[in-house]
Amino acid sequence: MSLSDIPWNHFGPINHLPTRHHSASGLYPQHPHSSAFLDHGFTQLSSAFYHPNPHFFFNMNTLSTDEMETFQKLSNEFQANVQGPAVSARQSSGAIAVEYANADPAFVTKTNALAVTHPLSRTMKGDGNCGWRAVAFGYFENLLNLQNMLQVHRELVRIKSLNVLLDQTGQQEHLYEIFVDATEGVFNQISEAIQNGIQDEGFLVNAFNDEYNSNAIITHFRLLTSAWMKLNPHRYQAFLSLPLDQYCATRIDTVRTEIDEVGLQALVDGVIEASGFAVEIMYLDRSEGEVVTPHLLTPTRPTAATICLLYRPGHYDLLYPAEPTVNMEPVVNYQYAMTSNYSPWDQGALAFDVNTSLMSIPNLMMDPSFGMAPSPMPAAPPSPYRVSPPLEVYQSPMHASPPPPPVSLASPPPPPRMSAPPPPMSSLPPRSSDGPQIRLNPLVMKPNLSHSLPVTTPFKNSPYNQAHFQNQDFEPIHWEPSDSRR
Amino acid sequence: MGSQKRIAKELAELVESPPQGIVVRLADESNLYAWNVYMDGPADSPYYQGKFLLNLSLPIEYPFKPPTVNFKTKIYHPNVTNDDKGSMCLGMLRADEWKPSSRIHAVLEFARQLLAEPMPDDAIEGRIAEQYKNDRKRYDEVAKEWTRKYAIES
């Protein structure tokens, strides 16, 4: 993809986290190439000139050389005191919303929406490597989640083959091999985990919290990115304000320089893209809109995994989207279709216009007011950037052939997940204008049976379901292809 | 650990084919992280014919942090502290400019080049830098004098 697609304007006025760290031992004067602090100081200085309060007036001339040296030394030695692990455990994205509770309304709206669409997040330490670390960790984590030995092996071979790029750009093997070794170590850990059936990513978190390991992997990814850029200068030079070699030397090859848009695109292009994974950034800023601004760094294509980054000016974290397609699958329907001798049910029981996502809320269907709702409500605001919106509406059984009892094939099979938008409401059967907006099971109307509303029985996870192991009359479901696949 | 593997390889390379005018030895055979560097003063510099001993010390985080270089032989130079530490910290030796892909070979060449061409704009010793820029003759004299006094065995 082209760099021109990158939204360059997503820089809000806030800057939560330090993006530069001057960790050099202090010597005076500052080297001209690393004068970020001085620039910053002068900005403050000029604004001080216009400050109405004379006490704020600050004049360089009043400082003695010794004082200036002292300040210079302090600034050079400054290292932000960033707490916390390099990579945190997964945590609720609600914490991000809480962080912004008193901030600009744009942030409040967006962070609240974010907590719904991406309920989990993982914090990266803001030590100058967060963007690099987020991508690298996300890459390995997705590889673990896919649980595919073959793919892990293929990726290891691919990443190691990228050594050619390093050789082509004059890097020497005896200098870079320890970085490649560290990366390979993580691949091996993942293979081992998959072999042992381990899905928990705790060992990856540990690997990235080991300082040497983490530095080595990030340096490996940095060097690959740098080499990739040098070998494909035409793709990047136009976006750089300085010669590409100099850019790589001062921004990519260093130890703690934060990644910028161009560097991130090059990292994705050169190292990640060939894995087939997608990389998506959610920009959290004060731009217009109700939700964070998404941006896909990889070509649009079907993908098995997505590394989802949260970007706030100067900082990257990882995000984990909700998995609505899994929860909203009409499981009830499948279950029903699988049983042929399921006595407590009659076909009327399935005749609800059931919103499958709402059905997962216990007792909701008991609420009489629900029946009065004009239409099924989506459980969550549909996320605007999802290629395939989740299936939100239960397919009504109207299209099926007259269902004989039992109701084995009462509804048509659910549409493939990657298909079109949710079925329009017009596809629902016509309703009578009077009476409740749902067609109730006749049993509901019998007062004696109200304690055992059949509405609860279809829940797969309910002990009222005969197919649930805690049910008194537990009876496992027997799947009979002849019945369900007619 | 990876860093030892790399240090060992770099040391082997430097012992086998050192940069011009430089000899490298471990200060202590049991410690890979402290090196003695013997550096000849470059020709066409006031340090010519001097033999300077430098300590090169590798941090435990190497190569993610740069090595530190100290002149153990006293030297009159704008970029070397005029104290018993003799420290030198500029350019690639600064932590924020250091690249993990740099090699010690380059560090040593950089240090020797600095003897031939001081960088007065990045000076640590302001007065020597002033003198270097404004009164080169006097600077040369003092630097030669110090070289004779401290760096040449009689």
UniProtKB/TrEMBL annotation, chain A:
Annotated region described as Disordered, given as residue ranges: 377-486
Presence of the UniProt keyword Hydrolase in the record: yes
Residue stretches of biased makeup (Pro residues): 400-427
Positions with biased composition (Basic and acidic residues): 475-486
GO biological process: protein K48-linked deubiquitination; proteolysis
InterPro entries in UniProt: OTU_dom (IPR003323), Papain-like_cys_pep_sf (IPR038765), Peptidase_C65_otubain (IPR019400), Peptidase_C65_otubain_sub1 (IPR042468), Peptidase_C65_otubain_sub2 (IPR042467)
GO MF annotation terms: cysteine-type deubiquitinase activity; ubiquitin binding
Polar residues: bias regions: 449-473
Positions of the OTU domain: 119-322
Keyword set, alphabetical order: Hydrolase, Protease, Thiol protease, Ubl conjugation pathway
Cellular component terms per the entry's GO annotation: nucleus
Major enzyme class: hydrolase
Reaction equations catalysed: Thiol-dependent hydrolysis of ester, thioester, amide, peptide and isopeptide bonds formed by the C-terminal Gly of ubiquitin (a 76-residue protein attached to proteins as an intracellular targeting signal)
Gene3D superfamilies: Peptidase C65 Otubain, subdomain 1 (3.30.200.60), Peptidase C65 Otubain, subdomain 2 (1.20.1300.20)
Coiled coil start-end: none
Name of a matching Pfam family: Peptidase_C65
E.C. designation(s): 3.4.19.12
The protein's name in its UniProt record: ubiquitinyl hydrolase 1
Automatic annotation (TrEMBL), chain B:
Alphabetic keyword roster: ATP-binding, Nucleotide-binding, Transferase, Ubl conjugation pathway
Keyword ATP-binding attributed: yes
The keyword ATP-binding appears for this protein: yes
SUPFAM superfamilies the record matches: UBC-like (SSF54495)
Source species, domain of life: Eukaryota
EC number(s) on file: 2.3.2.23
A Pfam family this chain is assigned to: UQ_con
GO terms, molecular function: ATP binding; ubiquitin conjugating enzyme activity
Residue stretches making up the UBC core domain: 2-152
PANTHER family associated with the record: UBIQUITIN-CONJUGATING ENZYME E2
Protein name: E2 ubiquitin-conjugating enzyme
Organism: Aspergillus ellipticus CBS 707.79
Lineage, broadest ranks: Eukaryota, Fungi, Dikarya, Ascomycota, Pezizomycotina
